[in-house]
Structures are given as structure tokens and as C-alpha cells.
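Subject: for your reference before the review

Hello V.,

The reviewers asked for a structural picture of the protein, and I figured it would be easier to keep everything in one thread rather than splitting it across files. Below is the amino acid sequence we used in the manuscript, unchanged from the supplementary table.
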Amino acid sequence: MCIAVPGKLIEIDGRRGQVDVRGNRLTVELGLVDAKPGDYVLVHAGCAISVVTKEDNDELTELLELIGYGA
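And here is what came back from the structure prediction:
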């Protein structure tokens, strides 16, 4: 099963960015979103697909922990 995971955009380098997902830094494509460092994004298949609020990020992270994601 593939799911999108939330993370915080740390830095941008051209069309790519570094996103912190549960303490892991991922390089993602940013071509689908208008995001800036400090924004929270959903990441799927190496691409940021949506900008989300901090509250959404926190809720999604909590739900993923409840189902054992990343355990």
C-alpha cells in the first residue's frame, strides 16, 4: 500500500527540497506545489503533492503512529 506522508520542508534547491519526515531527511520534487521552507507538505512517491497546515501535519502523524507506520 502506498500512502502520502507529512513532513516539514527544510530547504529548497531549485525544484527539489529537503523534507523532514519523522526525523528523516528526504529529497523531494517540488514542481507540484508552491511551498517555502517551514511549510508542511504531503510527500508521495518522491514528490510533494500538497501543502498542509501544521495541525493537519500533526493529526496525520498521530494517525500514522496509531496504525504502526514507521514503528
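For the response letter, the relevant points are probably these. The domain at 5-66 is CATH 2.30.30.140 (SH3 type barrels.). Helices lie at 54-66.

Happy to draft the paragraph if you're swamped.

O.
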